[in-house]
Design goal:
By secondary structure, the chain is an alpha/beta fold. It contains 5 helices and 7 strands; from the N terminus they run βββαβαβαβαβα. The chain has one domain: 3-Layer(aba) Sandwich (Rossmann fold), CATH 3.40.50.2300.
C-alpha cells in the first residue's frame, strides 16, 4: 500500500493505537522501500495498553525494533546506564509511574548522546514542549494526534546518513 494511502494511526479514548477507522494498523509490505535494518528503540511508558499498542504500531509501520521498555524513571535510567543494548531512539512519556520523563531525557542525553530523544505525551503543551526541548529532546509528539508524525520521524531516522537527524 502506498504511504499516502496508509491508514493514519490514532489513539482511541482508552489510549490504544488504531487507524482512523478504529482498526489496528495493517502490516507493512516487504517491498515498501524501508531499510532492512530497523532502528533499535527504547520506550519509557507506564500505561501498559499504550505501551503495547505503540510497540505494535511502530513495529508494523516503521523500521523499528523495540529493544527495551521501562515504566518509571529509575528503571529507564538504569537501562540507559547499562550500555548493553544498542539504542538509536529513546521514546519517553513525561508523566511516569514514579519519577519523570524529564529525568529520563537528562540521563539519556548524557548516557546515549548518539540516540535520538523523542517525547510522546498527552501533555504536549507549548510550555511542556519548550521544557522537553530545553532538556535535550530532539522532537516532542502528542499521543492523541501525532502518532503518524512519530512514525514518519522514525522512517526518516532510519533513512538518514550516520550521525544526521532529520529536520
Amino acid at each position: 500500500m502506498p504511504a499516502a494511502a496508509r491508514p493514519r494511526p490514532i489513539l482511541d479514548p482508552r489510549g490504544a493505537i488504531a487507524d482512523a477507522a478504529g482498526a489496528a494498523p495493517r502490516a507493512r509490505a516487504q517491498d515498501d522501500g524501508l531499510p532492512a535494518r530497523p532502528l533499535d528503540v527504547f520506550v519509557v511508558e507506564d500505561n501498559v495498553i499504550v505501551l503495547e499498542s505503540l510497540i505494535a504500531a511502530l513495529e508494523e509501520l516503521a523500521p523499528v525494533h523495540v529493544v527495551g521498555t521501562a515504566a518509571d524513571e529509575r528503571v529507564a535510567v538504569d537501562w540507559l546506564a547499562s550500555g548493553g543494548e544498542r539504542c538509536d531512539v529513546v521514546i519517553v512519556d513525561i508523566f511516569l509511574r514514579t519519577g519523570s520523563g524529564l529525568g529520563v531525557l537528562a540521563a539519556a542525553r548524557r548516557r546515549r548522546p548518539e540516540a535520538a530523544l523523542v517525547v510522546l505525551s498527552n501533555y504536549a503543551t507549548d510550555e511542556m514542549r519548550a521544557r522537553c526541548l530545553a532538556g535535550g529532546a530532539d522532537r516532542v509528539f502528542d499521543k492523541s494526534r501525532d502518532i503518524d508524525q512519530l512514525v514518519a520521524y522514525c522512517v526518516a531516522l532510519a533513512a538518514r546518513a550516520p550521525g544526521e537527524l532529520p529536520h
